[in-house]
Automatic annotation (TrEMBL), chain A:
Region Disordered, residue ranges: 1-22
Protein name stated in the entry: Proliferating cell nuclear antigen
Family: Belongs to the rad1 family.
Gene Ontology CC: one annotated term: checkpoint clamp complex
Organism: Tetradesmus obliquus (Green alga)
From TrEMBL, chain B:
Source organism superkingdom: Eukaryota
Cellular localisation: Nucleus
Protein's GO biological process: double-strand break repair via homologous recombination; meiotic DNA integrity checkpoint signaling; mitotic DNA replication checkpoint signaling; mitotic intra-S DNA damage checkpoint signaling; nucleotide-excision repair; telomere maintenance
Protein name according to UniProt: Checkpoint protein
Organism per entry: Tetradesmus obliquus (Green alga)
């Protein structure tokens, strides 16, 4: 990438192609974005797809085997300023580079606001962090640090949405993300794929893996809420790799605005959808906001009990969402 | 060729607490260059992974002047290579077990060569530590004392030919620790970085790799000498981005820029915590041939702005511009 030159001709061409108003967003706390990206924990060099839409920002990624798809969503209300008119912009960026760049920004300041502009003169994504901080020079002068980055973008379509194939009836339950993480972490040692077994009466959940040894983890009904099981018993298997990616990288409640709550759904064909709701600090005053979609609709307080009801009552616009969809596997492959 | 001395407590402390650990971070060996007025610890680029490191003490800071003797046929300069880690061990052992006085002497000992009957005279630094009824003798093997040609080369290597037009103090402004944190993360993106120093007290750093370009602007750093500094233009009405500020400064001749290795800058910043300099002066040589960094120390017991008896300097190679 040629940083220093100012290629007028190329600029004009880009502008002709995109007579769209530029997007300017400000996230009051860079940690909101870095925490969600960590939960996605993608270390591959592939590009991820970024969507800048009037409703909010999304990031989508599909793994090599195409059996796992991850996404994160930051609604516009979570930003301290949000200028993004229609239509929505879709482009690809190298995931690793984005994460590394944000890590450099976060090292300069843990709480400064992050500005996002798109597109830059070469169609790139521009980030800026400005920290005047409390630092005062020994000689009394003002001191500050400004960080900026330009990340090249590429043309990219959204990966196919596996939930387009979602078939009811689905089974689901809610629980604290940390409990799920612990259980799946434990299941690492036997190796092999993981079987999730949901029973309706009495409501129970167990996860089992059998490889070099075997281990079964039971979660008690007291830990679950909003349990809905489509048949007396539902059982499906998933690759351990996908389970780990979906459930084990969520942030600790102390790092964000509160404990993460997670909804796990399995559809009639065995598609697994794991949705983490991460409470985030900052953003503008809670507004009405449009409903985000199916996961919100099924969280009506009346259908839930205990902590889940409290979670649902939490302003949904304060939540960052990280979601994983996995394909099931047949018996041990 | 002769050398013997008694280390001052202060000299010994500086060495084992701060400067030998600093040298150890850069490389395993260093050369000691002794003269009637000054003592140098020198690491050349080949010793220190590309960087050139020199610690300079005045003789009176390091040794008791009455008992200090150094003599040779080449301007009374004596130089030899030592293993930094071993020297550090010897000093630590002396300080722990017999801390009252520490004498050092250059000696030759006959050493049996392994596997045969011959003996060879090998040079050693003989340390005698005394304290509390204990006397501890340690013999540190050193490299053969340098011939005059090598001594001259060391004398040339230890200094920069001339000071840079101006320096920025990395310890000012937001501070070296904050800069080190950012540079440490930038390491993940690229092994080399562009550094630009502006007379206005702005430090720009940029890394670029594959599809990312990332930069940082640290403003408000102190400029030395003070008459080289320039007031930044007032910003009303013109909000320039950091990149624009850099371009303007370069065009106006108020800034100099080079490419250096990230690991060198990072190491320099991290060793600064070992010796706690009061100023970390970072400059680009006239003609952009190298980068010169000086750690300047303050003696808290005096009024002087800086301590003349001690300096630590680094000379970093720069990459050819593309």
């Amino acid at each position: 990438m040629d940083i220093d030159s100012n290629d007028e001709q190329e600029q004009e061409h880009e502008e002709e192609e995109q007579q769209l108003p530029p997007v300017h967003l400000t996230l009051s706390n860079i940690r909101s974005l870095t925490t969600l990206l960590q939960a996605m924990k993608i270390s591959a060099k592939q590009a991820c797809t970024v969507v800048l839409a009037p409703e909010g920002v999304e990031l989508h990624w599909a793994d090599d085997s195409k059996s796992l798809r991850s996404s994160l969503q930051l609604r516009s209300e979570l930003f301290s300023s949000y200028e993004c008119g229609p239509p929505r912009r879709v482009f690809g960026v190298a995931m690793l580079q984005l994460v590394d760049a944000l890590a450099v920004f976060a090292s300069a300041s843990s709480a400064a606001p992050l500005q996002l502009h798109y597109p830059g003169p070469d169609g790139e994504l521009q980030l800026e962090l400005s920290d005047s901080g409390d630092a005062v020079d020994v000689d009394g002068g003002g001191a500050g640090c400004v960080m900026y980055a330009r990340i090249a973008t590429q043309e990219q379509d959204l990966p196919s949405d596996m939930t387009d194939y979602w078939r009811e009836p689905a089974s689901y339950f809610l629980l604290k993300g940390a409990l799920l993480k612990e259980a799946v972490d434990d299941l690492e040692w036997p190796g092999g794929s993981v079987a999730i077994r949901l029973s309706r009466d009495p409501p129970a959940l167990s996860m089992a893996a059998a490889g070099t040894g075997s281990l079964e983890v039971h979660l008690s009904a007291a830990d679950l809420s909003g349990v809905q099981v489509a048949e007396p018993q539902v059982q499906q298997r998933y690759r351990y790799k996908n389970m780990k990616a979906s459930m084990c990288h969520i942030p600790d409640g102390k790092e964000v605005g509160g404990p993460v709550s997670t909804k796990v759904s399995i559809d009639a064909n065995g598609l697994l959808k794991v949705t983490h709701m991460v409470p985030l600090a900052g953003g503008r005053a809670p507004g009405g906001g449009s409903a985000t979609g199916q996961q919100q609709a099924s969280m009506q307080p009346s259908a839930l009990s205990g902590f889940a009801a409290t979670q649902a009552a939490l302003d949904s616009s304060r939540l960052g969402v990280v979601q994983f969809v996995s394909l099931p596997v047949d018996e041990e492959d | 060729m002769k050398f013997r001395a008694t280390l001052t407590e202060r000299g010994c402390q500086s060495l084992h607490k701060a400067f030998l650990p600093t040298l150890e971070k850069f490389g395993k060996t260093c050369h000691i260059l002794l003269g009637p007025d000054e003592v140098f610890f020198i690491q050349r680029a080949v010793d220190a992974d590309g960087a050139n490191v020199t610690v300079r003490f005045t003789a009176e800071r390091m040794f008791n002047t009455e008992s200090f003797r150094v003599a040779s046929r080449h301007f009374n300069l004596v130089a030899f290579a030592v293993d930094v880690g071993l020297l550090l061990k010897v000093l630590r052992s002396a300080v722990t077990n017999a801390p009252d006085t520490l004498d050092v002497k250059l000696t030759q000992c006959a050493v049996a060569l392994p596997g045969c009957d011959e003996v060879e005279n090998k040079p050693f630094l003989c340390f005698t530590a005394r304290g509390d009824g204990v006397s501890l003798v340690q013999e540190l093997p050193i490299g053969k004392p340098c011939p005059s040609g090598e001594i001259d080369a060391l004398v040339a290597a230890k200094d920069v030919a001339s000071l840079c037009p101006w320096y920025l103090d990395l310890a000012s402004g937001a501070g070296a620790a904050g800069l080190a944190r950012v540079v440490d993360r930038m390491k993940a993106l690229s092994s080399s970085m562009q550094v630009a120093l502006c007379k206005t007290g702005d430090l720009h750093i940029q890394v670029a790799e594959n599809s990312v370009m990332l930069g940082a602007l640290f403003s408000g750093l102190t400029v030395y000498p003070q008459d080289a500094s320039k007031q930044p233009e007032p910003e009303e009405g013109r909000q320039l981005t950091a990149e624009e500020k850099l371009q303007e400064a370069l065009q106006a001749g108020d800034a100099m820029t080079v490419h250096i290795q990230v690991k060198h800058l990072l190491k320099i910043l991290s060793v600064s915590t070992l010796s706690q300099p009061s100023r970390i002066l970072f400059g680009i040589a006239e003609g952009c041939g190298h980068v010169h960094v000086m750690f300047v120390y303050r003696d808290p017991s005096t009024e002087a702005a800086y301590d003349d008896s001690l300096t630590l300097g680094f000379k970093l190679p720069v990459r050819d511009e593309d």
